[in-house]
Amino acid sequence: MRKKLVIGTNNEDKVLEIKEMLKDIGLKIKTLAELKIKIKVKEDKDSLEGNALKKAQAMWKKAKMPCIADDTGLFVDVLEGAPGVYAARYAGEKATYADNRIKLIKELEGIPLMSRTAYFRTVVCYYYTKGKYELFDGICEGKILLKERGDKGFGYDAVFLPNNSEKTFAELSAEEKNHISHRAKAFDKFKEYLLDQ
After folding, report:
1. CA 131 to CA 127: how far, in whole Å?
2. What H or E segment, with its residue span, contains residue 67?
3. Looking at the annotation, which residues are catalytic?
4. Which of 19-23, 61-65, 142-146 has the lowest mean pLDDT?
5. Whether the Cβ atoms of residue 169 and residue 157 lie closer than 8 Å to each other
């Protein structure tokens, strides 16, 4: 019997990316929407690990089946790691993707491209039974551009240029992004773990 798994997020963009990343290992994947589960978890921990665990545990309690949840941060060196864990709400609790990008570009005004080094980091929590979980992380390094480029992806994709790439995340196809992204690297580790079980 195939392993069942719930993707513990209400973010449809993340659901699509994660389903694509996990499509080749024979999992029976469910979403919160498919299970008619409505839950909002306050991401109030000061680490990606803390937020990912909090979300996965809450989803597991509701779904009563193994669950994965992730948390991602964008860490900009010249801003001493900001927005970091608060990337999704950098411009405020109700901020849109565009609001966050605009604020980031404004914060970096006057800083040359070579000094705009940054990295994305994702932590995935696989919560499979009460009190039992595993954590997996992935990092993608790059730079924050002076202005947006590209119309694919979501979040900060249009301003993030990965190292060794001429295209931003928002200019890459989903397949290209899923080869190099922080989330892909974290989920690759998760897949390796599952296949070893």
Report:
1. 8
2. strand 67-76
3. 71
4. 19-23
5. yes
Residues 6+ apart with CB under 8 A from 3: 26, 27, 28, 66, 194
Report residue 8 as tokens: 């513990």
Q: Say which CATH class 4-196 falls into.
A: alpha beta
What residue segments make up the domains of the chain, in order of their start? 4-196
Which among 62, 86, 66 is positioned nearest to 74, based on CA atoms? 86
pLDDT score for 91: 94
The 10s digit of each residue's pLDDT in 128-185 is 999 999 999 999 999 999 999 999 988 999 999 999 999 999 999 988 998 899 999 9
Q: Are 156 and 84 in contact (CB under 8 A)?
A: no
**CB atoms near residue 193 (< 10 Å):** 13
Pull the structure tokens for residue 182.
């922080």
pTM, to two decimals: 0.90
CA distance linking residue 1 with residue 127, whole number of Å = 19
